Amino acid sequence: MQDLKNAPIGIFDSGIGGLTVAKAVIDALPNEDIIYFGDTARVPYGIKSEETVRSYALEITHFLLKRGVKMILIACNTVSASAKEEIIQAAGDIPVLDVITAGTKNAVSLPKHNHVGVIGTLATVNSQAYSKSIHAYDPTITVTQQACPILVPLAEEGWIDNDVALQTLHHYLDHFDESGIQSLILGCTHYPLFKDIIPKVLKDGNIEIIDSAESIAESAKTKLSELGLLNESGGEFRCYVSDRPQRFHELAERFLGRSLNGVEVVSLG
Amino acid sequence: MQDLKNAPIGIFDSGIGGLTVAKAVIDALPNEDIIYFGDTARVPYGIKSEETVRSYALEITHFLLKRGVKMILIACNTVSASAKEEIIQAAGDIPVLDVITAGTKNAVSLPKHNHVGVIGTLATVNSQAYSKSIHAYDPTITVTQQACPILVPLAEEGWIDNDVALQTLHHYLDHFDESGIQSLILGCTHYPLFKDIIPKVLKDGNIEIIDSAESIAESAKTKLSELGLLNESGGEFRCYVSDRPQRFHELAERFLGRSLNGVEVVSLG
């Protein structure tokens, strides 16, 4: 048990967006060792077929399991939508949490909720994954979704609070003002970067913004605590990527919210 | 020779953006058979290492050569920048043209040119490929480059003439107004979709817009004519992709400017 306590948490994403999840986990669980895998050679997953996404996700799962992780966090919405069951099966006794379930649980637990808004990539929205997940908890909740394909490139360009970002968010979010949603789930790893500007765009100041990255970090903390597996002596962060793209460090540090050392490139598949 | 005349032209790109090149080639050479390969499973190349891009490009080159193409057009700027020499070597006697050389030749052939502007993806701009290519013709020409990472996603979202597109183009292009450029090369396969709006953003109405897709189509026509290899009885277009992404058809038809039938998914590597 002592060994498992000191084992790292595995987090993975199709690329570096999932570093917003790593950031939230480090903030919530500063004494845990973390292994992050970003599949930068094959990003983005959202435009790929479900079959392809599943085979990539299983390769990464095995990579993390070989490194002895005590828990796997699926930071990628596309993987959460298409491959969660396969990963749970592959992981055996190791608990697997995913951003979609975490964000959903957070939304449905808010009081007097009957209408939830969700923004995500085209792939996440088309998969209906958030609708299905929310309706599994409460089929009476109305879900209004909006795909926001421009937000990921804006986040990567660092345009997170300029006129283009504002105008883009107005295009995507203005219809929510009349819709009566009580919460808005940020259903993409990149979107936490817009968390400060979104409330300025939404006219209805009562809409609760649900950050899936924070939600899954809280779920992980609760789960590890339940299992008696909280680490008290760790705090190391290791980052593996399948390719080292241009601007990698600049982007990674923006998403992670701190400096990043010791990135290793590994080949999968 | 008759056989080679009737052989198809091979065109390839990292994804579907190169269909703007296919469109220009169909317009310029309506009687040619064309085989297009879009590496949709592994797009985008621009964020990948040069080594990875080279190995992908060679796989596609061999795919096209096996199908008996009489000419290869590299529609992808990233491949043109990193793998042109390797492809020329692999292709042997089959002529290879690339978008960077074609756009460059077009720019430097304009009268009294001493300052050229280039817009492209971050990878293309960082590679300095257009600067090198222009300076190989005339080292006295000043080249001013601008990376425009948001334009590809805007083109894919279909936001090619709305307020966000205008504002984004102002961010990227306004500095060209004072720069004294005489031409602006659209150094990315997606950018021809903004060809109508860019002159509205540029205050200097004398700046010549150079569309690399049209440039390479003209180069291909000239080359085939020189070699006596113009086809007079073809006109078939076949499209191969390595994955069938979501919205594929909608996007492909927007870029190709016509309807698209008979797309085949093939696995490389």
Automatic annotation (TrEMBL), chains A, B:
Catalytic activity: L-glutamate = D-glutamate
Annotated active site: 76, 188
EC number: 5.1.1.3
GO BP annotations listed: cell wall organization; peptidoglycan biosynthetic process; regulation of cell shape
GO molecular function annotation: glutamate racemase activity
Keyword terms: Cell shape, Cell wall biogenesis/degradation, Isomerase, Peptidoglycan synthesis
UniProt xrefs under InterPro entries: Asp/Glu/hydantoin_racemase, Asp/Glu_race, Glu_race
Pathway: Cell wall biogenesis; peptidoglycan biosynthesis
Binding site for substrate: 13-14, 45-46, 77-78, 189-190
NCBIfam families: glut_race
Role of this protein: Provides the (R)-glutamate required for cell wall biosynthesis.
Family to which the UniProt record says this protein belongs: Belongs to the aspartate/glutamate racemases family.
Name by which UniProt lists this protein: Glutamate racemase
Organism the protein comes from: Gracilimonas sediminicola
Lineage, highest ranks first: Bacteria, Pseudomonadati, Balneolota, Balneolia, Balneolales
Name of the coding gene: murI
